[in-house]
Amino acid sequence: MFVELLVAILFGVFCGVITGLTPGIHVNLVALLLFSSTSLLGVLFGPLSIAVVIVSCALTHSFLDFIPSIFLGAPDADTALGVLPGHKMLLEGRAQEAITLTVIGSLTALIVAVLLVPVLIPIVPTLYELLQPFIAYLLIIVVLFLILRDTNPYFAASVFILAGVLGLVVLNNQTIKQPLFPLLSGLFGISTLLISLNDNVSIPKQKNTKPKLEKKVYAKAIGSATLAGSLVSFFPGLGSAQAAVIGEQISGKLGGEGFLVMVGGINTVNFIISLVTLYTLEKARNGAVLVVNNLLTIDFTSLLVLLFSIMIAGGIAVFLAFYLSKKFSKLVQIVNYQKLVISIITLIIILSFVFSGLIGLLVLITATAVGILPAKLNVSRSHSMACLIVPVIIYFLL
What we know:
Layout: H1 2-21, H2 27-36, H3 38-41, H4 47-64, H5 66-72, H6 83-91, H7 95-131, H8 135-148, H9 153-171, H10 180-198, H11 215-232, H12 240-251, H13 255-281, H14 287-295, H15 300-334, H16 337-377, H17 386-397
Helix pairs in contact: 1-4, 1-15, 2-4, 2-14, 4-13, 4-14, 4-15, 5-6, 5-7, 6-7, 7-11, 7-13, 7-15, 8-17, 9-16, 9-17, 10-16, 11-12, 11-13, 12-13
């Protein structure tokens, strides 16, 4: 049984490397493919081992998905806000440092979240019942605070409304397959790349510098990641993007480095606590956990096995993240930046068409136009996350 579980962990890590480094391929897609192949995989693995493959894949993905976001500007819902300070650090020759910060956040949050599991198991049901009626209003308060604290609240509100309406239209259109890829790639990916291209920036030689983060900032970032990641994992429709917005308000100003630690930690906390909510509430809060729920009934023993597997996968993912980010750092130094940006934009356009068809290209173009506005209006790009926040608010209000 131990050998089978170890093989399952390694296979899951391998799948997580593929999903983490490939723009547009989400871990949920791999989870569904694994579930649909249960009869074939059943020759090698039992239901618990297949679940181990899925959680190991998801955990590895959370460590590695910042690499394409920072180096290529191709985000998903979990890393969209991380593109902003990450891309800035890339242009300062500190991309390796940016990845290190997200890995530090992920690893520390992994340890903290696993240690909190015994505490959370008895209190999650009570917290869920207490907070559920108020989640929409809490999000509205956070949104208003974000807008009012901006340097130009009028422009900030305009960007928020535009992105929110775009998110409502796109996410409620059942004809669009994989709507998040063109939506987020336009708002945070291509828009960022086009601005860099227009400014004639070039990628400097990447330094192998170590992060210098104050202990106070580090503690605040991890604390915010743990609190916000745990909070949103209770509720359907909320994810790492909304947790990052909430966490930023909890922590106050962290700076770019602290923010990367926080968003790295949120992804990991969100997934682990989702397993706890599955065990305590029998409710799945994301696609990968939903597949696990369909594979087997989570009892205390299987929860321990999944957490044990996650810890091993996390340890492997740390070394993979450092190794692969070094390879990416060397690659971007020998490639002409303008040609690289054009190639990435072309790749995103092709993937948007493959995943979402012609209507996906329309979403991509529209989202890119909205994504350029914050830089031109000198407001925070975090307001573009309204594309996900507004639909969630309406979901809870209705």
